[in-house]
Amino acid sequence: MKTGLIGFISRAWHREEKLHPLDQKMAKKWIKQRMLNVFPELRNDPIALEQAYHSLSLEPRPGTQAGDAGTYFEVQFPG
Q1: Which pLDDT does position 31 carry in this prediction?
Q2: DSSP class per residue in the chain
Q3: What is the pLDDT of residues 23-77, one digit of tens each?
Q4: Measured on CA atoms in the order 29, 34, 37, 40, is the torsion positive or negative?
Q5: What pTM was computed for the model?
Q6: Confidence band, pLDDT 50/70/90 cuts, at residue 10
Q7: Domain-by-domain residue ranges, the chain?
């Protein structure tokens, strides 16, 4: 119980740092590269690749448990 209360208070006082633009670009590039490996039909169609990337609705989430990274991205599939 003590750990839960202390964790709650520490999360309330510490704000998540804004993700650096370079990190955002690296994450986007990595995700698109993975999409090209999984869906080879997107290789020659950059517009379709961009639409597929946006349809994933990637949401940055702060790490909440001990040992979590500062920020991780949660993929929300459409529909």
Answers
A1: 85
A2: -HHHHHHHHHHHHSPPPPPPHHHHHHHHHHHHHHHHHH-GGGTT-HHHHHHHHHHT--EEEE--STT--SEEEE-----
A3: 778 888 888 899 899 889 999 999 999 888 888 877 666 666 666 666 667 766 6
A4: negative
A5: 0.56
A6: low
A7: 16-74
Separation of alpha carbons 4 and 52, rounded Å? 39
**Residue keyed to tokens 């500062």:** 70
For the record, the structure tokens of 61 come out as 């989430």
Residue 10 CA to residue 72 CA, distance in Å, equals: 19
One-letter amino acid for residue 79 of the chain: G
Q: Tell me the residue type at 52.
A: A
Q: Residue type at 60? A: P
